[in-house]
């Protein structure tokens, strides 16, 4: 499980990070609102722990924006504000839980576990976008009923794109998820595999679905979408 901690108090941030890592979580951290926004939009986290008051952009604004964009990641607010009105404001903005400072580490971990349990739906066995379908159990892919043969790497790349659709996936995410390494995001390696995948799923007589978003990455997009 991967957790993002956004807290400008270094002592609190390091304490929470250490507690989560001791429980086996993978943890990223940052202290500024704009950076937190970018991380949440571009990386797949299982949970975010957000301070309300942050430099650059506050926690409420961050959560409102990611909710408008369709992100359902659970959010636990941390705040020194303990008034009922503050808690209600945070939850109404899209937060899933609210914990006031100072807090018990034991309680924090319990709330984290509860939020993650809530978020654990049954994993889908099939993914679909338009007429492009993937069966995760049989590891098969088809488009408009026509089977498509993919390599293991191409299969995982398409799976990542299907899981993210209709949102784009940037090159850094692809190299991290598919190759489990941090290549330069401009490497031709990603482009080569994308081109091979594009050639296989763009069948004659059918509109293209896999597109490049300049400066961002790649996206599965309906032909009529702008």
UniProtKB/TrEMBL annotation:
It comes from Methylacidiphilum caldifontis. InterPro entries: CheY-like_superfamily, OmpR/PhoB-type_DNA-bd, Sig_transdc_resp-reg_receiver, WalR-like, WH-like_DNA-bd_sf. One of its GO terms (cellular component) is protein-DNA complex. Residues 124-222 bind DNA. The modification 4-aspartylphosphate is found at residue 51. Pfam families: Response_reg, Trans_reg_C. Keywords: DNA-binding, Phosphoprotein, Transcription, Transcription regulation, Two-component regulatory system. Gene3D superfamilies: 3.40.50.2300, 6.10.250.690, Winged helix-like DNA-binding domain superfamily/Winged helix DNA-binding domain. It comes from the Bacteria. GO terms for molecular function: phosphorelay response regulator activity; transcription cis-regulatory region binding. Residues 2-116 form the Response regulatory domain. Residues 124-222 form the OmpR/PhoB-type domain. This is DNA-binding response regulator. PROSITE patterns: OMPR_PHOB (PS51755), RESPONSE_REGULATORY (PS50110). GO terms for biological process: regulation of DNA-templated transcription.
